[in-house]
Design brief:
The protein is α+β, with helices and mostly antiparallel strands and 387 residues long. It has 2 domains: 8-49 and 102-177 and 271-352, 3-Layer(bba) Sandwich (FAD/NAD(P)-binding domain), CATH 3.50.50.60; 181-269 and 355-380, Alpha-Beta Plaits, CATH 3.30.70. It is 35% helix and 27% strand. The chain is built from 11 helices and 21 strands. Strands 1, 2, 8, 9, 10, 11, 20 and 21 form an 8-stranded mixed beta sheet that branches. Strands 5, 6, 13, 14, 15, 16, 17 and 18 form an 8-stranded mixed beta sheet that branches. A 3-stranded antiparallel beta sheet has the order 3-7-4. α1 runs parallel beside α8 (299-318) and α6 crosses α7. The longest helix is centred in the C-terminal third of the chain and has 27 residues, at 327-353. It is globular and about 70 Å long. The protein starts with 7 loop residues before the first strand and ends in a 7-residue tail after the last helix. It binds flavin-adenine dinucleotide. The site of flavin-adenine dinucleotide has 39 residues, from α1, β2, β13 and α8. Residues 13-19, 36-39, 45-50, 52, 55, 126-127, 159-161, 165, 183, 185, 222, 270, 286-288, 294, 297-301, 303 line the site of flavin-adenine dinucleotide.
Length: 387
């Protein structure tokens, strides 16, 4: 007689940074953990491709990041511009840097760290939704060529991004009315004046343009536009980028010879509010637990820290230190303690973009008080306190 196959302790849906970090941490706790992703890895992901210093420090605390750093470009600060020609540059403190690295490489590398720690990774597996038993999540339903199949698990961690099927099925997230912004991203060559050591953010009324150098010589360009400009961006993203810089005395000349080297990707509306950090049997991490705005470039730090927090709470449940029914509230408290200040900051920044005079005033104020701007760049970059 063959022994029954043991069910997984934790099934993690989504192998982006939140899911991979959670899998790594849980595997180190000794849990039987399975990481599922609908995509075949390595896979690309629309992102500005920059890990801020705080995100990098979190990874340093978990794994040896030297191999990752060799695939990226060290970033020593940020350039910011506003309408009307205001421009400032802020540097991180000495010895502190972020990293520009393709998400394809970062995410693949993080998954490999989780597998080395003992997690099982199944890619190309689409999760359709949760299995519910006695009002609790007891696993997930996966699509197979032979039809849907139940995949039971003691706990489920949803790290399946902004469009999370699990968070939506359990009624845990809502799309806020405002702001409704769309993002489009691509890689260009021949963007003039890109400093290989600096990220850039160019804020204009209603939207913004992020520029980051990436390994290999191309430039990552992400444009965020309001709903009124989203339809045109979906139809012709490259034309939308050209339109965004046209007539701008600072940006237009830099894009004069630029050409796309990758197919642009468009997504939106971006913002997502979470009403809880999970439900019985389910914990949320990363964008699935809410997304404010990519302008501050810290989504990866929230994903890495949030994946770790969710994994620690799941480990407490598995070890009997916390009841499964109480786990979402425990996770919500820990997330609030760690993230609330930065969420407030990000919401403030998000509101700023809506008002052209405010953007102009902020850009000029930053030029007048460079010390204050450096402090802002440090805070936005989650620079560790000791640095
Ligand atoms: C335009 C833009 C630029 C950005 N730039 C930056 C930046 O420069 N720096 C930064 O720190 N942050 C940036 N962010 C934010 C950052 O990309 C996200 O916060 C981060 O990717 C969140 O990671 P995650 O692991 O939660 O989700 P994701 O990285 O989205 O991973 C989710 C995974 O779940 C999988 N999945 C989804 N649904 C299913 C399903 N049903 N079944 C199985 N698998 C599923 C997906 O295939 C995916 O691999 C940016 C975001 C945008 C939109």
């Amino acid at each position: 007689m063959t022994a029954p196959v043991p069910i997984d302790d934790v099934t993690i849906v989504g192998a982006g940074p939140a899911g991979a970090v959670a899998a790594l941490v849980l595997a180190r706790h000794g849990a039987r953990v399975r990481l599922l992703d609908r995509a075949r890895f390595p896979r690309p992901k629309l992102c500005g491709d920059t890990l801020n210093p705080g995100a990098l420090a979190l990874l340093d605390a978990l794994v040896d990041t030297v191999p990752l750093r060799t695939r990226g470009l060290a970033l020593s600060g940020m350039r910011l511009s506003g309408p009307g020609g205001a421009r400032v540059e802020g540097r991180y403190p000495d010895g502190v840097a972020g990293l520009a690295v393709l998400r394809r490489d970062l995410d693949q590398w993080l998954v490999a760290q989780a597998v080395t720690a003992g997690a099982t990774f199944d890619d190309g597996v689409l999760v359709r939704g949760p299995i519910m038993r006695d009002d609790a999540v007891a696993g997930v339903v996966v699509a197979t060529p032979a039809g849907d199949r139940a995949h039971p698990s003691r706990l489920v961690l949803a790290a399946d991004g902004r469009m999370s099927v699990l968070a939506r099925a359990c009624g845990l997230v809502t799309t806020p009315r405002r702001p409704r912004r769309w993002a489009l991203g691509t890689y260009l060559d021949a963007v003039a004046g890109v400093d290989p050591g600096l990220g850039e953010m160019h804020v204009r009324p209603g939207g913004y343009l992020g520029i980051a150098p990436v390994p290999g010589g191309a430039t990552n360009v992400c444009l965020v536009v309001p709903r009124t400009r989203a339809a045109a961006a979906v139809v012709d993203p490259w034309a939308a980028i050209r339109a965004a810089v046209a007539g701008d005395p600072h940006l237009a000349p830099r894009f004069a010879d630029a050409r796309p080297v990758a197919r642009p990707v468009v997504l939106g509306p971006m913002a997502l509010d979470a009403t809880a950090a999970g439900a019985a049997g389910l914990l949320l991490a990363g964008d699935a637990a809410g997304f404010v705005d990519p302008m501050t470039g810290d989504g990866l730090r929230f994903a890495i820290a949030g994946g770790r927090l969710a994994a620690d709470v799941a480990a407490d449940v598995l070890a009997g230190r916390c009841r499964a029914s109480e786990a979402p509230a425990v996770l919500a408290r820990r997330r609030h303690a760690l993230f609330a200040g930065k969420w407030r900051f990000n919401r403030g920044v998000r509101a700023l973009v809506d008002g052209a005079p405010l953007v102009r005033a902020a850009a000029w104020a930053a030029r007048a008080w460079p010390g204050a701007f450096e402090a802002l760049v440090r805070y936005a970059g989650d620079v560790p306190r000791a640095a």
